[in-house]
């Protein structure tokens, strides 16, 4: 039997071409030069005890997927993946097989990290502490290299009709949680991790840059899990601005207004360099970059007070100016995937918290469009232009093929 899947294969010249054109022409990226194709692959088989097959119900298209398809992610990634792979790590799906105590038919959200547990290894120190996102062994064991499902040649991924996953990746969902909320559990768990990595002190002045799906989910997490004071959200597009307002931003501004807005509320001094963006002396206590471009990271670094914290959520763009990091003695921290969080003195998994927050909040509309796999070119184009088109998240619905 074969499974219909979207497959990313490396062809170096194509890969490099995509890198060159990725910014300018979304149509070209999903066109004949794209390093992706729709294939019928042999059904993936469970990779050992504790593994089972999953049928995806919905699978999101995330910024990191678009960066990979566009050849824009750093070459740092190359040893952390194995090609060809089926993308798709934001998944709500149904178990085809019984996996340990989970019966076939269980609806799950995928925790995508392929950590020591999935690889049949004794846990590395990070995995032993529950921080599987920090696993040191994502390239070893009996599973091919791959930091997550969706980047590994052996597992398949969510952009297909079937893939395999390990028990450590399966998070059962309550029946009353819709599929559209279920597919957001993974990005929401990342947003929760981001909000907590920000170490927001009571009444802190927070600058949140970006109001796509991750930005809005991070805003939700900040409101629910921290005692942030002001949250200024930088949103480029009209619909994003509406979302940020409805999720409780104190103020929503366009990128060009961000520095002035932070200056006003933090009584900072604005300075204008001979070249490049203005910056503040004084500024927000914390800035969170949910865009991942050079410009957005510069904005974060330039608008935080001395001693403040900048959180990088998602793959950062290259080329940001680190002068403020040095001169303002900033703390620059990354936030990758979810983890074990400390909330009110208790250790809890960000996935567990994500299911609760998804249940309690009106996030369904964040998934603004779904496509069958065979319309993948349209889906990728839509995702690349999502902000302009007023969509926060585009997802594949492989049931529709
Ligand atoms: Zn590990």
Structure, described:
- The protein has 401 residues and is α/β, with parallel strands linked by helices.
- The protein has 14 helices and 19 strands.
- It has helices at 12-21, 26-29, 63-69, 125-128, 179-182, 185-197, 213-225, 238-246, 258-266, 294-302, 323-327, 350-360, 376-384, 386-389; strands spanning 2-8, 36-42, 51-60, 91-95, 107-110, 163-166, 170-172, 206-209, 231-234, 251-253, 269-271, 279-281, 284-289, 304-313, 331-335, 340-343, 346-349, 367-371, 393-396.
- The strands form 5 sheets. Strands 3, 4, 5, 6, 7, 18 and 19 form a 7-stranded mixed beta sheet that branches. It has a 6-stranded parallel beta sheet with strand order 10-9-8-13-14-15, sandwiched between helices.
- A hairpin with a 7-residue loop joins strand 11 (269-271) and strand 12 (279-281).
- Helix 6 (185-197) crosses helix 7 (213-225) and helix 6 (185-197) packs across helix 12.
- The protein is globular and about 65 Å long.
- The model is unreliable at 11-15 (pLDDT under 50).
- It binds zinc ion.
């Amino acid at each position: 039997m074969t499974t219909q899947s979207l497959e990313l294969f490396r062809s170096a010249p194509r890969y490099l071409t995509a890198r060159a054109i990725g910014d300018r022409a979304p149509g070209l990226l999903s066109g004949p030069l794209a390093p992706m194709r729709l294939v019928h692959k042999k059904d993936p088989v469970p990779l050992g005890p504790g593994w089972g097959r999953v049928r995806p119900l919905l699978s999101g298209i995330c910024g990191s997927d678009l960066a990979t398809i566009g050849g824009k992610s750093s070459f740092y990634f190359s040893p952390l993946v194995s090609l060809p792979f089926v993308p798709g790590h934001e998944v709500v799906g149904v178990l085809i097989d019984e996996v340990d105590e989970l019966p076939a038919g269980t609806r799950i959200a995928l925790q995508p990290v392929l950590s020591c547990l999935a690889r049949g290894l004794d846990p590395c120190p990070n995995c032993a502490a529950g921080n599987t996102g920090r696993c040191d062994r994502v390239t070893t064991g009996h599973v091919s290299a791959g930091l997550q499902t969706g980047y590994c040649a052996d597992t398949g991924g969510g952009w297909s009709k079937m893939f395999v996953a390990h028990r450590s990746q399966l998070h059962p969902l309550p029946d009353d949680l819709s599929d559209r909320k279920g597919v957001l559990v993974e990005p929401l768990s990342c947003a929760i991790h981001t909000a907590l990595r920000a170490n927001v002190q009571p009444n802190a002045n927070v600058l949140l840059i970006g109001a796509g799906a991750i930005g809005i989910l991070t805003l939700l997490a900040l409101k629910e899990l921290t005692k942030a004071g002001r949250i200024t959200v930088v949103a480029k597009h009209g619909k994003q601005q509406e979302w940020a307002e409805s999720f409780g931003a104190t103020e929503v501004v366009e990128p060009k207004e961000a520095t002035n807005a932070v200056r006003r509320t933090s009584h900072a001094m604005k300075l204008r360099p001979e070249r490049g963006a203005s910056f503040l002396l004084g500024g927000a206590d914390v800035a969170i970059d949910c865009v991942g471009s050079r410009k957005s990271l510069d904005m974060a670094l330039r608008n935080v007070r001395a001693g403040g914290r900048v959180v990088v959520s998602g793959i950062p763009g290259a080329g940001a100016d680190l002068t403020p990091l040095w001169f303002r003695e900033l703390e620059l921290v990354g936030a990758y995937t979810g983890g074990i969080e400390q909330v009110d003195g208790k250790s809890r998994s960000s996935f567990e918290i994500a299911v609760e927050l998804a249940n309690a909040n009106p996030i369904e509309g964040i998934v603004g469009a779904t496509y069958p796999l065979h319309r993948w070119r349209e889906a990728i184009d839509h995702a690349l232009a999502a902000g302009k088109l007023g969509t926060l998240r585009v997802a594949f619905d492989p049931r529709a093929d």
